[in-house]
Amino acid sequence: xxxxxxxxxxxxxxxxxxxxxxxxxxxxxxxxxxxxxxxxxxxxxxxxxxxxxxxxxxxxxxxxxxxxxxxxxxxxxxxxxxxxxxxxxxxxxxxxxxxxxxxxxxxxxxxxxxxxxxxxxxxxxxxxxxxxxxxxxxxxxxxxxxxxxxxxxxxxxxxxxxxxxxxxxxxxxxxxxxxxxxxxxxxxxxxxxxxxxxxxxxxxxxxxxxxxxxxxxxxxxxxxxxxxxxxxxxxxxxxxxxxxxxxxxxxxxxxxxxxxxxxxxxxxxxxxxxxxxxxxxxxxxxxxxxxxxxxxxxxxxxxxxxxxxxxxxxxxxxxxxx
Length: 322
Description:
alpha/beta; 5-stranded parallel beta sheet; 17% strand; elongated
């Protein structure tokens, strides 16, 4: 078993404090005019946002590109070394470059910088030194704070990469707000995994057509029992002569009203009238919350007053909505 020492804890807390200080310094040093100009360039770009950087800056750049791409701003990462061996062809005059270099003097960025100058491609620099070669060549400079690195040697990028990551998030969230990027658009870009499941709509998971347990409200309870048994959803919905949804019965309702004469009753007399319903456009996580709050397991899905489907809590849980 590992033995944790006070030295380990002290080192951890020191690292956390130094990185917090770097973010606080970023908060104090962000130049609003430069930030606005950078966001203007990115929003007006008719091409893509291309991120580049060497070493640790490059790793952070990949994350920034992924965040932008997943939130409505087409973006990808180009490695500076690969750019010099053909990948410059991936960059067009309609793109905007974000070049990341802590010092602003990364030799590997020279070819990309020259390419941008030759073809008039707009470039945003993220660097600690606005007067560096990179900063001087850029159209907009987003300056990182000159904060202490958490590395005890003062060499490995730590606080600086954290600040760069936060600055990338600032750009990403700024564009989300400017563009009015929605949950629905986010879902289109995240069809798989947990996010995709949570953001699915009720209409994607509901039972429809022949699978929907639905009867006329004047049906007798024998027909109701047969419909509930055959559709295996533990409920039956009812409509009037105009096809309008008027109520539903669940297997729990049936157990509560069992009697010797129940088969002679009409559904109209026993059903729950005007139960909670949803629309097909509701996010599945919202439907699950309603079921949880109301302690129900089924809801019918309406288009106006017409039932078009039914959703069961198991449909949501089995698809990863939780």
